[in-house]
Amino acid sequence: MNVYRELFFNNVKRLLAGNFPVLHRLYGDANWSRLVREFYAEHRAQTPLFPELPREFLRYVQEQRRRRLDDPPFLLELAHYEWVELALSLDQRDLQTIPANPEGDLLDGIPVLSPLAWPLSYRFPVHRITPAFQPQEAPAEATHLLVYRNRLDQVKFMQLNDVTRLFLALLQEHAHLTGRALLEITAAQIGHQAPSVVIESGTSLMRNLQQRDVLLGTQP
What we know:
Helix content: 40-55%
Largest sheet: 3 strands, antiparallel
Strand content: 5-15%
């Protein structure tokens, strides 16, 4: 029983280390083993499937784990950020099946946002955290990221400025509006005195997002 217990624990430990590589490096082998044993002892997983165990680990950190002295203040946010890459990799949706006209006019047509593009906001700059950079207090400004999977099934990320984040939020909220209408709302909300400038730069932004497969085209 001891042999099988250690084999199973080591499998889980290696699996989680592969899916949370930055966390693993931050904790080191000994502390990582303790963290995984605490997860193993304190959390009742809702699935026996190995690909779902990282989600179970995230649920444990989010809902059950009481912070220990050696837990970094960004533990939950970093765990979520690392899990997102796995979640997008495993998502079975195929961008080729999403109805969209890649040749459509993004400005006067209705842009189609990829369901595999996730705008995310964190208190900590999770994309920059390394063993050499571990902020103990959240910066004054939040970090806004877009994590997405392209048509080559590559998971990428980009940091968002306030205007791009607002545009994507409006696109999610008003999926029936044209690109021009969304940019006009964006200009009004940021109080820009020359909406035509926002529309011009926003058109370039939409083309860039389409090249990344964040926008798939326009509604047919």
